[in-house]
């Protein structure tokens, strides 16, 4: 049964929503504040949380933030006051599924609830399918579609053409298709077409017999013999020369090969997965790639989208690579600072996942603290957004009038003074919302809350 938690500090509102949703057939529990809500969430698997924003103690945005850290796929619908559209925008930016504003429209609540519940179920399914592909990191809609496609085509013998920009993960996808295929126990034999000189290519593909050319000192098996009954992975297929294209086409048509210098033909049964970062249709138009070969290879075409079209995967990939390289380098770099993550999210990754991996690798290597700061990121083609400068904190040197005063105060006190000024300014600007102030200052919510307590900064209770 679908189970919903309603969080509101106003009893009449809780009861109203509870009755409304129970009539719709949902099981409903209520909580009177963020803290109580979190306790209930730990004890019971909810499908949806509906929470008011303005509450004493832990408010709705803080609750949202905590839920998104602990259970990112649990949908949260926020209730906002009619007069505060900023709250709605902020909630959406921080991962709320949707919001409804007071005063309520009953039909709106019903429809938002049912689509949020459906979304929750969808993301539970997405999670379980991505668990089938532990070596490919990604939970974006685009990657889920690829996982579904792999599952569907893996069990057929159809040839697959994987295309996409460099560094998108084409080889990983090819391996995954093989691993999920009916011939997973047989060989997966890769060959990089661009890496082999033309005169050797035929022998690499089809093998040769002893003495067939200078240097052929013994019989040699080619890709097709080695991959027989299994999968051959032809990487960078766009680089094949016309002569080899023709020979390959013949093999695909006849399903038999003749080794170089040999007289007997051999039957082979190989599934071909090819990959390219070229646009083969353009190569065909330009007369560089055989159209008939293209159709033989691309029985199932599979596009791996560039990373900039699935930015949602960036945090997941970043933390995966962070763990990988921290371990490899024996370092204790545990996380990205929220500002460093923001910088990554704005970046367009011309080199795709491979570039992200390199950025994190370098970041971990350069970082001396346990958190990756924006300074440790080296992005090849990044232009900093000019509007950012308005959110940079004031220089500590503005705190005092002259250098002598700097030395009188000492670094500790200066830093504290600067922190206090930044916090006060941000809280004032955000109408005392710690969540938004943290965002403005580009620090985590937790660290802002800690500092506010430490300096005892209060602009009056909200
Ligand atoms: N979704 C992913 N999860 C984890 N690692 C990934 C993912 N996608 C790519 N990588 C990593 O990024 C690097 C590049 O991936 P891969 O070699 O599969 O890309 P490609 O599309 O074949 O690139 P190219 O066209 O340049 O050959 C590899 O180190 C790979 O492990
Ligand atoms: Mg590759």
UniProtKB/TrEMBL annotation:
Q: Which residues form the Response regulatory domain?
A: 3-117
Q: Which residues carry this modification: 4-aspartylphosphate?
A: 52
Q: Which InterPro entries match?
A: AAA+_ATPase, AAA_lid_NorR, CheY-like_superfamily, Homeodomain-like_sf, HTH_Fis, P-loop_NTPase, Sig_transdc_resp-reg_receiver, Sigma_54_int
- Describe the location of the Sigma-54 factor interaction domain by residue ranges: 136-365
Q: Which Pfam families match?
A: AAA_lid_14, HTH_8, Response_reg, Sigma54_activat
Keyword terms, alphabetized: ATP-binding, Nucleotide-binding, Phosphoprotein, Transcription, Transcription regulation
Name the Gene3D superfamilies on file: 1.10.8.60, 3.40.50.2300, Homeodomain-like, P-loop containing nucleotide triphosphate hydrolases
Name assigned to this protein: Sigma-54-dependent Fis family transcriptional regulator
To which species is this protein native?
Desulfotalea psychrophila
């Amino acid at each position: 049964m679908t189970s919903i938690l309603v969080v509101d500090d106003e009893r009449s509102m809780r009861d109203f929503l509870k009755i409304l949703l129970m009539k719709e057939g949902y099981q409903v529990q209520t909580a009177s504040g963020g803290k109580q809500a979190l306790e209930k969430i730990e004890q019971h698997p909810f499908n949806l949380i509906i929470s008011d924003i303005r509450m004493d103690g832990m408010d709705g945005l803080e609750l949202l933030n905590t839920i998104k850290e602990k259970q990112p796929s649990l949908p949260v619908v926020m209730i906002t006051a009619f007069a505060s559209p900023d709250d709605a925008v902020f909630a959406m930016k921080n991962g709320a599924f949707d919001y409804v504003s007071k005063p309520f429209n009953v039909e709106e609540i019903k429809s938002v609830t049912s689509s949020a519940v459906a979304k929750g179920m969808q993301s539970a399914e997405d999670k379980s399918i991505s668990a089938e592909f532990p070596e490919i990191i990604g939970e974006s809609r685009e990657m889920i579609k690829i996982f579904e496609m792999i599952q569907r085509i893996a069990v057929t013998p159809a040839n697959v053409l994987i295309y996409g920009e460099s560094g998108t993960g084409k080889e990983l996808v090819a391996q995954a298709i093989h691993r999920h295929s009916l011939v997973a126990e047989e060989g997966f034999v890769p060959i990089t077409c661009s890496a082999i000189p033309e005169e050797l290519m035929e022998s690499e593909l089809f093998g040769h017999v002893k003495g067939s050319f200078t240097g052929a000192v013994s019989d040699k098996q080619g890709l097709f013999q080695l991959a027989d009954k299994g999968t051959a992975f032809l990487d960078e297929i766009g680089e094949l020369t016309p002569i080899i294209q023709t020979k390959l086409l013949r093999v695909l048509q006849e399903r038999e090969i003749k080794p170089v210098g040999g007289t007997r033909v051999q039957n082979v049964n190989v599934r071909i997965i090819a990959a390219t970062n070229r646009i083969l249709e353009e190569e065909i138009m330009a007369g560089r790639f055989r159209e008939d070969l293209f159709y033989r290879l691309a029985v199932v075409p599979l596009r791996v989208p560039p990373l900039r079209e699935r930015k949602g995967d960036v945090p997941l990939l970043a933390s995966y690579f962070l763990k990988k390289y921290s371990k490899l380098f024996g370092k204790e770099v545990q996380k990205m600072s929220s500002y460093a993550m923001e910088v990554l999210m704005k970046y367009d990754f011309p080199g795709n996942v491979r570039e992200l991996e390199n950025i994190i690798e370098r970041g971990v290597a350069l970082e001396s603290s346990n958190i990756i700061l924006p300074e440790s990121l080296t992005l090849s083609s990044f232009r900093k957004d000019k509007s950012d400068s308005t959110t940079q904190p004031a220089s500590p040197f503005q705190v005092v009038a002259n250098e002598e005063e700097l030395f009188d105060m000492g670094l500790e006190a200066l830093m504290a003074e600067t922190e206090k000024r930044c916090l006060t300014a941000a809280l004032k600007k955000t109408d005392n919302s710690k969540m938004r102030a943290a965002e403005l200052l580009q620090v985590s919510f937790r660290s802002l809350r800690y500092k506010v307590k430490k300096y005892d900064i209060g602009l009056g209770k909200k």
